[in-house]
């Protein structure tokens, strides 16, 4: 029995069928590295402060990189994010999910490969997410 909410598609053809789902020609490490360069250039262009890049590839299924930056004020945080979103769209990477843009305290931009957190300095200091991701890896056998 099919799962609730899942769409099923039936295809009737003779012979070979082509791949229905389009695959991006540049996925993986190279694409993530190019996307990282674009994101960092955009952040620097917007005068984002205290840019920290964390490689989370292999540590999390969330993406390959996490970037944490600060803006001087709510207005600066929103300007950084709007500039980054525009740059992503201009490069054909416009499917980023954005949360928190209305308030401008903490904005999360998820491109799929890269997660960008843009904070006001006080909010960044309070949550201190860099510290959480910089924690040493726990060995598998230690929790038993």
Task: Record keyword descriptors for this entry.
five-stranded mixed beta sheet, disordered C terminus, globular, 144 residues, alpha+beta, 4 helices
Written description of the protein model:
The structure is a single chain. The protein has 144 residues and is an alpha+beta fold. 32% of the residues lie in helices and 19% in strands. It has 4 helices and 5 strands; from the N terminus they run αββαβββαα. It has helices at 29-45, 74-90, 121-127, 129-133; strands at 49-55, 65-70, 97-99, 106-110, 114-119. It has a 5-stranded mixed β-sheet with strand order 1-2-5-4-3. Strand 3 (97-99) and strand 4 form a beta hairpin. Helix 1 packs across helix 2 (74-90). The chain starts with 28 loop residues before the first helix and ends in an 11-residue tail after the last helix. Residues 6-26 and 138-144 have low confidence and may be disordered.
* Beta-strand content bin: 15-25%
Query: Which of globular, elongated, flat, extended, rod-shaped describes the shape?
Result: globular
Structural class: alpha+beta
Radius of gyration: 19 Å
Compute the separation of the termini in Å. 38 Å
Q: Numbering strands along the chain, what is their spatial order in the largest sheet? A: 1-2-5-4-3
Topology, number of strands: 5
What are the segments in which pLDDT stays under 50 over at least 5 consecutive residues?
6-26, 138-144
Determine the number of helices (DSSP H or I, runs of at least 4 residues): 4
Strand count, sense and barrel status of the largest sheet are:
5 strands, mixed
Helix percentage: 25-40%
Secondary-structure element string: HEEHEEEHH
Can you give the mean pLDDT? 79
């Amino acid at each position: 029995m099919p799962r609730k909410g899942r769409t099923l598609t039936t295809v009737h053809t003779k012979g070979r069928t082509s791949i229905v789902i389009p695959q991006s020609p540049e996925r993986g490490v190279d694409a993530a590295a190019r996307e990282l360069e674009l994101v960092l250039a955009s952040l620097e262009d917007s005068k984002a402060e205290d840019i920290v890049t964390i490689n989370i590839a292999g540590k999390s299924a969330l993406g390959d990189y996490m970037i944490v930056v600060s803006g001087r004020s709510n207005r600066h945080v929103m300007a950084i994010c709007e500039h980054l979103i525009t740059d992503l769209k201009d490069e054909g990477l416009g499917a980023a999910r954005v949360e928190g843009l209305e308030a401008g305290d903490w904005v999360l931009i998820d491109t799929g490969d890269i997660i960008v957190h843009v904070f006001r300095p006080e909010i960044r200091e309070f949550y201190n997410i860099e510290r959480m991701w910089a924690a040493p890896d726990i060995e598998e056998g230690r929790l038993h």
